[in-house]
Design brief:
The chain is mainly alpha-helical. Helices cover 72% and strands 0% of the residues.
Length: 246
């Protein structure tokens, strides 16, 4: 298992904070750091440019890079070369969708298959993201570290046992990680812990969300909101992971 300090620090920092999912906090911090990285000197590093030219960025990360309002010239240069490669790939896919036969007539045999193939090639091109790739790789290592620390460090085990659980997406990630990295006995034990933590905290949050709905009853207008005040955004993030909400 991975034990490098570079990964244990963000894991411990995330579990030291209060919230509905420590892994969501790790992912948000990682994404913010990667925005800084891609807008910095790395923009001109050959290996980074090869990756960004081919993969570009997803909608979420393209918006994050733009909305940072830093080094927009560098971002424009990066996206210019990616756009050129994407345009070339799209043109090639479209050209193959309707190949011309002898005499200039379109070959209509298999045209639907050609169109679907072209659509698939274009979709494959836009479904990649250089930042998502790095996030996924690092988050997999964070899951590895969480599992290792749980069975090796008593203090960390107590933190996870008493935390507010995880969002559904990261609950699934932890289950996959347990299946990959733990022996049978550890995997069974961790699954029971995760089931308890998940169940208890969904029940807690559901009760707080119900409390939020009751606050809108005029008979309860003088009652303190307490934990129910922000239960709605917390439940959305519990169900849908770390969603940006206004």
């Amino acid at each position: 298992m991975i034990r490098e300090r570079i990964y244990t620090i963000p894991v411990n920092d995330a579990f030291a904070e209060d919230g509905e999912c420590a892994l969501c906090r790790m992912k948000r911090k990682l994404s913010d750091d990667l925005v800084t990285y891609f807008l910095g000197a790395s923009l001109m590093e050959p290996d980074v440019r090869v990756s960004t030219n081919a993969k570009g960025f997803c909608r979420e990360h393209a918006a994050a890079l733009y909305n940072r309002r830093e080094n927009r010239l560098g971002l424009a240069l990066l996206l210019h070369t990616h756009a050129l490669e994407s345009a070339t790939a799209a043109k090639e896919a479209l050209a193959k969708a309707v190949p011309r036969g002898k005499g200039g007539f379109l070959k209509r045999t298999g045209i639907r298959e050609n169109l679907l193939e072209a659509a698939g090639r274009i979709e494959a091109r836009v479904s990649t993201c250089a930042m998502c790739e790095r996030v996924e790789e690092t988050m997999a290592r964070y899951v590895d570290v969480v599992l290792w620390q749980y069975f090796e460090e008593k203090e960390f085990r107590t933190k996870l046992d008493t935390c507010k659980g995880f969002c559904l997406t990261h609950t699934a990630d932890l289950l996959r990680g347990a299946a990959k990295h733990l022996d049978d006995g550890q995997a069974e034990y961790f699954a029971k812990v995760l089931a308890r933590v998940t169940g208890d905290n969904f029940d807690r949050l559901a009760g707080e969300l119900e409390g939020f709905t009751l606050l809108h009853d005029h008979r309860n207008r003088d009652k303190p909101a307490g934990a129910s005040k922000d239960a709605l955004p917390r439940m959305i993030r519990k169900l849908e992971s770390d969603v940006d909400l206004d």
